[in-house]
Amino acid sequence: MTAIPVRAGLPSVRPQARACARSAHHAPPPSPRGELSAAVLGALTGADPGEPLRLPRPSETAAADPLGEDVQLTLYVLYELHYRGFPGVPAAWEWHPDLLRLRGDLERGFEGALREHTTGGTDLPGELDALLTEPVHPQGPSVSHHLADTGVWWQLREHLAHRSVYHLKEADPHAWVIPRLTGQAKASLVAVEFDEFGGGRGERVHARLFADLLAAAELDDRYGGYLDAAPAVTLATVNLMSLTGLHRSLRGALVGHFAAAEITTAPSARRMVRALERSGHGEPAFTHFYTEHIEADAVHEQVMRHEVIGALLAAEPELTADVVFGIQATSLLEERLAAHLMSAWSAERTSLRLPLPDGPHAATNS
Ligand SMILES: [Fe+2]
Ligand SMILES: [Fe+2]
User: Which of 167, 227, 280, 294 is the most interior residue, by most CB within 10 Å?
Assistant: First the structure.
C-alpha cells in the first residue's frame, strides 16, 4: 500500500515557538451539576489522593441519565485527569482506583446509550458514503449551513465556545490509539496527527490556531474556559473520543470516529469561512483555523479512509462493526448537538448554560 504524503519534513525550530506559552493557561475545575459531579469534584479539590473515597455505587449511578448533565460532566472531569488535569488538582488522582471504578460504571451506561441509539451493522462503505451526503436536519439546515447563510455574530461566538471544549485539545484523544495500531494503519494515522499537531511548529498546532481564533473573537481562550458553559450535548461529543481513545477494545470505534471527523470537516470548514466573512470577520486572524482545515482535511479524509481504515481492517476484519459503531455514534452525537443549537437559536435563546455577554440571556433548557 502506497502512503499518501501528508506534509513531509520537519522544519527547524522557529522563534515563534516561544510565543506558545499563552496556550498553557488553564481554567479552574468546573462547578458540579448534580450529586455525581459534586462527589468527584469535592474529592479532587478537597481529599487526599492517597486515601480511599466514598463514591456512588453502581446501583446509584445506574439511575442517572447517561447522556444527562451530571453524568456527562462527571465523565468529562474524570477523563480530563488523563489529559492536562485541572489547576490545583494533584496529578496523583489520575489512577485512583475508586475514580477508575466510578468511571467504568458511567462508561458502561454511556456506551450502552450510544449502542441503543445507533443501528450498528457492518456496512462500512454505506456509512462512509453517508458522511459525504450533506446532512439535512428535520428542524432545518445544519449548523454550518445556518451560520454561513443566515447566522449572526453572537451565534458564531456561541458555536466557537461550544467547540472550544474539543478544539483546545484537538487530536489529543486520537493519539491514544497509536500504540494500538500496527504497520500502515499506524504510519498513516501518525501522518495525519503530525499535521494536527502543527507539523513540528508550535504556533501551527491546530489547538493553538483555535485559541488564536477565540482570542480574535474576544472569547476566553483558556483551556477549559467554556467547560461550565457547555451543556451535556457538547460534552458528550468530546467524551465519545475519550471513551474510545482510552479503551483498546474500542480502537476500531476511535478510528471510525476520526475518519468521520476528517471526512466531514473540510466542507463545514468552508462554510465557517463564509460565515466569518459574512459577519465582517474575514481576516486571517479569524479564518486561519478553518482555512487550514479546508486544505488539510481533504488529504486527511483520503488517508483515513483508504490507509488507516483500509489497513486496519485488512489486518483485523473483525473490527468492521466497531468502525461502523464509531461513525454512527459520532453522527448521533453531532446531530443531537446540532438540534440543540438550532432549537435554541431559532427561539433567540442562548445555547450555552452561561450566556455570553453579547448573546441572548434567556437560560437554555439543557
Ligand atoms: Fe485539525
Ligand atoms: Fe484533520
Answer: 227
Q: Is 335 exposed, middle or buried (0-12, 13-18, 19+ CB in 10 A)?
A: middle
Cα 362 to ligand 2 centre (Å): 35
| pLDDT one-digit tens code per residue, 341-354 | 999 999 999 999 99
Q: How far is the CA of 357 from the centre of ligand 2 (A)?
A: 32
Q: How far is the CA of 35 from the centre of ligand 1 (A)?
A: 35
Pairwise CA distance, residues 16 & 191, whole Å: 23
CATH 1.20.910.10 assigned to 122-346: yes
Among all chains, which residue has been given the C-alpha cell 458502561?
108
Ligand nearest to the CA of 301: 2
| Cα distances (angstroms) measured from residue 211 to each of 47, 162, 217 | 32, 13, 10
Q: Whats the size of the chain, residue-wise?
A: 366
d(CA 22, CA 44): 26
| pTM flag (> 0.90) | yes
So where are the chain's domains? 30-115, 122-346
